Amino acid sequence: MTDVAMDEGEGGSFGKRLIAIVAILSLVAVMVIGGFFALFMGVIASAAGAVGEDSCVPPSSTGWGSSSTTPAASTTAAPTDSMEIPYGTSGSTVTLDAKQIAIAVRIITVGRDLSVSDKGLKIALMTALQESRLRMYANSSVPESLEYDHDAVGSDHDSVNPFQQRVSGWGTVAELMNLDYSIKAFFGGPTGPNGGSPRGLLDVPGWESMQPGVAAQTVQVSAFPDAYDKWEPAAEQLISALGNGIVGGGCTPGTISGEIQLPLHSDYNMTSGYGPRDIDVPGASTWHAAIDLQRWPDPCGDPVYAILPGKVVLSSALWLSIEHADGYVVSYLHMYKTQRLVDVGDTVEAGQQIGVVGNVPPSGGCHLDLRINVANNTNAEVAKLVLSQNDTRLPRPATLPEHQNFVNPEDFFALWGVDLCPVGSCQ
C-alpha cells in the first residue's frame, strides 16, 4: 500500500500502437456484428468498464480500463474542474483535479448501485484518498499495468489502482486496472469479484459499527493503520458535494441494465403531468409531452442532474437536450442558459449537475420540465413504451407533430425499476 423536436417555442506507441490498432479493429468488428453503437464519454463520467454481465452499471467512459483488455482515452467536461478538500483537521487542504473527482464520483455511483450505505462510501473514499489521492496508479514493477490508461506510476510491491490492490491477490492486471472492478473488489460482499478472499468491506463482520479508519485498515491491512483517519472530513465533503442525485441503478428483473439518476433532489413535487392539460400560462402547450417538477417552496436555483449519460446536442434559450447512445433525447427545459454547466458538444454522465432550475418563459414559476423524445431510439426495451400519439390511456393522444414521439417520463424511469414520482411524496 502506498500513501500516495419543438414545443413551447424551440426544438427539441510500434508494438503498443499495433496492439491498440488490433484492439480497436476487434472492438469495431464486435460492435458491427452485435449491432451496437457505443458512445464513450470522458473524465467525469460517473462510469467505468462493466465488470460482468450481471452488472447494473453502464460501460465506462472515465478512461481507466473501459474494458478488461483495451485502454481508453479519458478527456471530457466535468461538473467541476477542481475541488478543495480538508487534509486532516488542522486546516490544511488538498486540491483535487477533474480526474480525481471523477474517481470519487465513480466510487459513490458504484457503491450506491450496490446499496452500500454512506458510511461504506465514506470508508471507500477515505481508503482511496490515502492510498492514491484518488488516482489510477500503474506500477513500474508490473509492466503490463503501464499498457492501461493511468494517472500515475508507483513502485510499491505489485500494487495498482486507486485502492493499491495487489496483483498477487486481488485480481489480474487487466481486472485491477479497471476502475469498476477495483471499486467492487474493495466493497466485496456476496456479489464481489473475489468471493470474500481477499475480503472486501462488506465481508468484514461488524464493519458498520467500526470506526471508519479501523474498517478501512481491516480491508487494506496497511503498514500505516492510522493513516486513513485524517481523510474522514474530506470523504464526508465529497459525498455531500458529489453524491446528490446519484441513487444507483436498481437492476429489477425484466428491466434494462444501466443506471439512471433523479433529475432533482428526491423531495420534489410534480406540478404538471404528462398529456393533455388545462393551463393558463401564455405560450404553454395544452398537450404536455413532459412532466414538471419542483422542490417547494424554494425551487429556483435547485441543482438539475442528467438522468443518463449522453452528449449535449441542443442548448437554446429554453431547451437543453442530451442525446443518449441509443438515440433517444432527454430534454431539460426552463433553465437559464447563463446558469447551465454544459453546452453543445459536451459529454455528460448520469448524476452530473448540468444546471439549475429556472423560470425561462413560457413558465408560471421556477420548475424543471423533463421530457424524452424517442424518434431515433434504437433500444428494444425503450421501443416498448407507448408513444405520445398512440397513448390511448390518456383522454386525448398527441395530435400535433411537435408533441409526438415522446414517452411518459414515469414509464421511462420504470424500465430501470425507479419510481420517478412516488404516490404520496411527489404527487
Give the mean pLDDT.
81
Oligomer: single chain
What Rg, in angstroms, do the CA atoms define? 22 Å
Number of helices: 8
Helicity level:
10-25%
Q: Topology as H/E string?
A: EEHEEHHEEEEHHHHEEEEEEEEEEEEH
| Spans of at least 5 consecutive residues with low confidence | 2-14, 30-63, 66-79, 249-255
**How far is the N terminus from the C terminus?**
50 Å
Total DSSP E strands: 20
Structural class: alpha+beta
- Share of β-strand residues: 15-25%
The rough form would be described as elongated
Instruction: Profile the largest sheet.
Output: 8 strands, antiparallel
Write up this protein.
- The structure is a single chain.
- With 427 residues, the chain is α+β, with helices and mostly antiparallel strands.
- The chain has eight helices and 20 strands.
- Strands 9, 12, 14, 15, 16, 17, 19 and 20 form an eight-stranded antiparallel beta sheet that branches. Strands 1-2 form a two-stranded antiparallel sheet. It has a two-stranded antiparallel sheet with strand order 3-4.
- The termini are far apart.
Write the layout of secondary structure elements.
Blueprint: E1 6-7, E2 10-11, H1 15-34, E3 82-86, E4 93-97, H2 98-113, H3 118-132, E5 137-139, E6 152-154, E7 159-160, E8 165-166, H4 173-176, H5 179-187, H6 212-220, H7 232-242, E9 269-272, E10 275-276, E11 287-288, E12 291-294, E13 303-305, E14 310-315, E15 319-323, E16 329-333, E17 347-348, E18 353-356, E19 368-373, E20 406-407, H8 409-414
Parallel strand pairs: 5-6
Antiparallel strand pairs: 1-2, 3-4, 7-8, 9-12, 10-11, 12-19, 13-18, 14-15, 14-17, 15-16, 16-19, 19-20
Helix pairs in contact: 2-3, 2-5, 3-6, 3-7
